[in-house]
Design a protein that fits this description.
The structure holds two protein chains of two kinds.
Chain A lengths: L1 E12 L2 E12 L3 E5 L6 H8 L7 E6 L2 E3 L3 H4 L3 E4 L11 H12 L3 H10 L15 H13 L5 E5 L7 H11 L6 E5 L3 H7 L2 E6 L2 E7 L5 H7 L2
Parallel strand pairs in A: 3-8, 3-9, 6-7, 7-8
Antiparallel strand pairs in A: 1-2, 1-4, 4-5, 9-10
Chain B lengths: L1 H18 L3 H18 L7 H22 L2 H5 L2 H6 L6 H29 L9 H26 L5 H24 L13 H26 L2
Helix pairs in contact in B: 1-6, 2-3, 2-6, 3-6, 3-7, 3-8, 6-7, 7-8, 7-9, 8-9
Classes of the chains: A alpha/beta, B mainly alpha.
C-alpha cells in the first residue's frame, strides 16, 4: 500500500513557486530521500506532507488521507524532525517531552524509555537552553518519535549530531525503525545509502526521480551545480 | 480537550515562571504609570471619573504589554508547529491562552489596585472592593479574549510589536468605557451605590460577543 501519493503537487508563497508539478508514489516502510540545493523546496515538501502547509494544486495523499481535507487523519501519525527542534528553550527535556506526550496521548513511560535510549539521563531536568545543539537535536528526535508515528519526515536529521549520537538515534529514525521515511539531505553518499527512492528538486521542480539502485552519487552532486 | 488545555496551561506557567517576561513587566509598568500620574497631575489624590479613567487606561496599556508577549515563545520556538502537528482540538490553545492572560491580569491587578489606592486614590478602597472585583472580573474576560485574538494575529507578522497595540486598542475601548463608567461611582469618598448595572451588562455582552468571535476565528489564525 502507498504511504504517499503525490500528483502534480504545487505550492507557492505569494508569487514565488516553491513546488511545482511534483508527482511520486512511496510504498509503506520505504524511504524517500530528497536532495536539492537550498531553496529547492525540500522543507516546503515536508511541511505540506505533515499538514502544516496546504497544497495549492494537485492531489496529495498521506497515509491514505487526502490533504488538505482529511488533514486531521494524518496529524498524530506523522513525526516531524525539522530544522527547528519545536521545543521550548526554557523547559527541560523532560518537561518538553511530557508536554508533547500530553498533546499526543503518549504513555508517560515512553518518555523514560526515550531518555534512556538517547543517553539523556542526568541532563533531562536541565533547561534546553543550557544543553548543546547536539543534545537538543537528540531531544527533538525523542519528540518526533514519542507517539510512535507511521511516517517520519526528517529534515537533515543528523545535523549537529556526532557519530556516537548518530548511532544512538539510528534505531528510532534509521532504516531499522521500520517506518516510512522522507528524508531531506545534503549528503549525497550518506543519503543515497538510506534511500529506496530518490527525488531531486531544483527550483521547486522535479529534476530526478528514480529508485536508489539506479542513481549514482555523481547525478546527485550534479543537482547542486 | 481538558487534558490538552491542562498541558498547555502547565507549559505557559512554567515558561512564564522561568522567563518572568510578562507579569513583572506589566505590574512594573502599571505602578510606574501611577507614579507618573501622581506627579503629572500635581494632586495628592483623585476621585470619581478621573480616578476611574486613570485606573482603566493604565490597566489597559499594561494588559496590551502582556497580550503582545502571549504567543512570542510559541512563534519563535516552533511551539505553534508542535501544537498543530498534534491530533487535538485547536480551540484548546484559545482556551489555554485566555486563561493564561486572565491569570496575568489577576496578578497585575493584585499589584496595581493597591498601588493605585496608595499613590492616587483619595477615597477609601475597602467599601468599594467587592463591586470593584466584579467589574474587574467582567472586564478581564473581555481583555483576555481580545488580547489573545489580537496576539495570535500580530505574532504572525514582522511588525508584531506595533500591530498588536494598533489592533487591540480600538477593540478594547468599549471595555475601558464600560469599566470606567461602572467604577467611577465606587471611587468617591461618599459612595452609596454600586456600579451601574447597565455598564456591567455591557461588559458581559461584549465578553460574550468576542468570546464567540474568537472561537469562530481562532482556528483560521493558526492554519496556513
Amino acid at each position: 500500500m502507498a504511504a504517499l501519493q503525490l500528483e502534480g503537487l504545487a505550492r507557492h508563497y505569494g508569487e514565488r513557486e516553491a513546488l511545482r508539478d511534483v508527482s511520486l508514489t512511496l510504498e509503506e516502510g520505504r524511504t524517500l530521500v530528497v536532495f536539492g540545493p537550498n531553496g529547492a523546496g525540500k522543507t516546503t515538501l515536508l511541511r505540506v506532507l505533515c499538514t502544516l502547509l496546504r497544497p495549492h494544486a494537485g492531489r496529495v495523499e498521506v497515509l491514505g488521507a487526502s490533504l488538505p481535507d482529511e488533514a486531521w487523519r494524518v496529524r498524530g501519525r506523522v513525526g516531524l524532525l525539522a530544522h527547528e527542534p519545536l521545543l521550548y528553550r526554557e523547559l527541560t527535556a523532560r518537561e518538553n517531552l511530557r508536554y508533547h506526550a500530553s498533546l499526543h496521548g503518549a504513555r508517560e513511560e515512553r518518555i523514560d524509555e526515550l531518555l534512556e535510549l538517547l543517553a539523556l539521563r542526568g541532563r533531562e531536568d536541565e533547561p534546553l537552553r543550557t544543553l548543546s545543539r547536539g543534545m537538543v537535536q537528540r531531544v527533538a528526535v525523542a519528540r518526533a518519535v514519542l507517539h510512535e508515528p507511521d511516517l517520519l519526515l526528517l529534515d537533515e536529521p543528523h545535523s549537529n549530531l556526532d557519530p556516537a549520537a548518530i548511532e544512538l538515534v539510528a534505531p528510532l529514525i534509521g532504516a531499522g525503525s521500520g517506518r516510512t521515511r522522507v528524508i531531506c539531505s545534503h549528503d549525497p553518499a550518506g543519503g543515497l545509502a538510506q534511500a529506496d527512492l530518490v527525488l531531486g528538486l531544483r527550483a521547486g521542480r522535479m529534476a530526478l526521480l528514480r529508485g536508489a539502485r539506479d542513481v549514482d552519487v555523481g547525478e546527485i552532486t550534479e543537482l547542486y551545480r | 480537550m481538558k487534558r490538552t488545555v491542562g498541558a498547555l496551561l502547565r507549559k505557559e506557567l512554567l515558561v512564564e515562571l522561568r522567563t518572568l517576561e510578562s507579569v513583572p513587566g506589566m505590574s512594573l509598568f502599571a505602578v510606574t504609570t501611577f507614579v507618573v500620574f501622581h506627579f503629572a497631575l500635581n494632586k495628592s489624590s483623585v476621585e470619581g471619573d478621573l480616578a476611574a479613567g486613570i485606573l482603566w487606561v493604565t490597566l489597559l496599556f499594561a494588559a496590551i504589554l502582556g497580550a503582545n508577549r502571549l504567543f512570542v515563545a510559541d512563534a519563535d520556538q516552533g511551539g505553534f508547529d508542535g501544537f498543530l502537528l498534534a491530533p487535538v482540538d485547536r480551540s484548546a490553545m484559545l482556551a489555554a491562552k485566555v486563561i493564561t492572560m486572565l491569570a496575568y491580569l489577576v496578578v497585575l491587578e493584585l499589584v496595581a489596585v493597591p498601588a493605585f489606592a496608595l499613590l492616587l486614590l483619595g477615597a477609601p478602597l475597602g467599601p468599594a472592593l467587592g463591586n470593584l472585583v466584579v467589574t474587574l472580573a467582567l472586564a478581564d474576560i473581555g481583555i483576555a479574549v481580545i488580547g489573545t485574538l489580537v496576539g495570535a494575529m500580530a505574532v504572525q507578522t514582522r511588525a508584531r510589536d506595533l500591530l498588536g497595540p494598533l489592533l487591540a486598542l480600538p477593540l478594547l475601548v468599549p471595555i475601558v468605557i464600560g469599566g470606567a463608567r461602572a467604577t467611577a461611582p465606587l471611587l468617591v469618598a461618599t459612595h452609596s451605590s454600586g456600579p451601574a448595572a447597565r455598564w456591567l451588562l455591557t461588559l458581559g455582552l461584549y465578553d460574550l460577543v468576542f468570546g464567540l468571535i474568537a472561537y469562530a476565528l481562532f482556528d483560521f489564525l493558526l492554519e496556513d
